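Consortium newsletter contribution from the modelling node. Members have asked for a concrete example of what our holo predictions look like. Here is one, prepared for the zinc ion complex that several groups have been discussing at recent meetings.
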Amino acid sequence: MKIRTRIAPSPTGYMHVGTARTALFNYLFAKQNHGEFLLRIEDTDTERSKKEFETDIVNSLKWLGLNWDEELIRQSERVSIHKEYLAKLIENKKAFYCFHTIEELEEEQKNQALEKISFKHECEHKDLSLDKALEKLKKENAIIRLKTPHKKITFKDLIRGEVEFDTNLLGDISLAKNLDTPLYNLAVVVDDHETQITHVIRGEDHLPNTPKQILIQEALEFKQPEYAHLPLILSADRSKLSKRHGAVSVNEFARLGYLPKAMLNFMTLIGWHPKDDKEIFNLEELVKEFDLERVQKAGGIFNIEKLKSINNQYIKELVPAEIAKFIAPYLDMYNPTEAQLIKVAHLFKDRLNTFSEIKDLASFVFALPTYEIKLLSWKDAPKEKIKTNLQIVLSILENISEDSFDIDTTTTELMPKANNIGRGDLLWPLRVALSGMAKSPSPFEILDVLGKKESINRIKKALEKLNES
Ligand SMILES: [Zn+2]
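And here is the predicted structure:
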């Protein structure tokens, strides 16, 4: 038997990181068993489903490198198949038409709420003969329900162990609005069966659907797949992860400049622990080491600091030319040259948690920020002293040829003077003149990135400021 799993998102929003993690676990489980991983778009809810979100799901999975096998399946294109099974259930008297109106059902729900019962509808219309029901259907609306048997259902969840449900709590489950409009649980069961899904791995928010789906499988005499319900992803305050905690959709993480490799690595560690303390895994290693039975039952915490640190580790492994490509979009407005981008990449690679951070870190390289004149002063040094020291620096730098204007040369030329005069006194005003900022990389690193001409310009600008004040 070939292992087959699926990710089955509804295109009603951008792909949430929780859905992406479910996709990842399905992918890892299928691949480690030499099986297949399918993508099914559950778009039967025509009011809420949007093409834009389907495109986002496809792009997000591709960006992560979670490539699915076979053609993408659209549930809305399978309605005729759902219809066949529905008709069969009605014919076999396992399903029936329920003629209760929405108002009647709401009334029933209200009464049950007063008795503190969660809503279920046990419908007496199941006793109508099919002929009578079809006659009635000519004049009245009806939905199709399963004749829910009264019994206990147990199934073995690969993460939670044995789970038991009492079908008395379910009532007669709704299957379809009519033969051409299947509802969620029916469509899922039919599609999983038709595409030979062997393992249903999904979020624990689907747990209440499982007994309903098992009953439908039994009515249709389908083989029951194995189930694994994954713990939800929680925010640091243990509430459900949502937009108010920051980025939650895969496309947002992509835009912020996270690497897909880092995302995959990080998502695997939410709710799953490897046997040892290893933290950095590539996709192949994950396929080998991931173990569904080691997924914890309790909710997994989404620790953004951990994601940043993992991303930082992956960025540090890249060479500056690769980083240059990733940071280019965030510095677009400055029209940087490739050589500049590579220098900036080299300078900041160890500090970058995400590529988007480059904008705050490196903008000063392309456009000198305006700064307060007093920032040039090291430990309240008087203006005259700053001017003198900047003049000294200027004349030293002007004597270095443009070709040899690099970190080594500027360090060799300036350091003896700095040691002589005082490092802070000489290097602080230089660093501020070059960066315009209270905090920045060392003046030697900035000189290297800016090059001789721009460095000299900025020092002269600082001197002008001092003269004018
Ligand atoms: Zn009814």
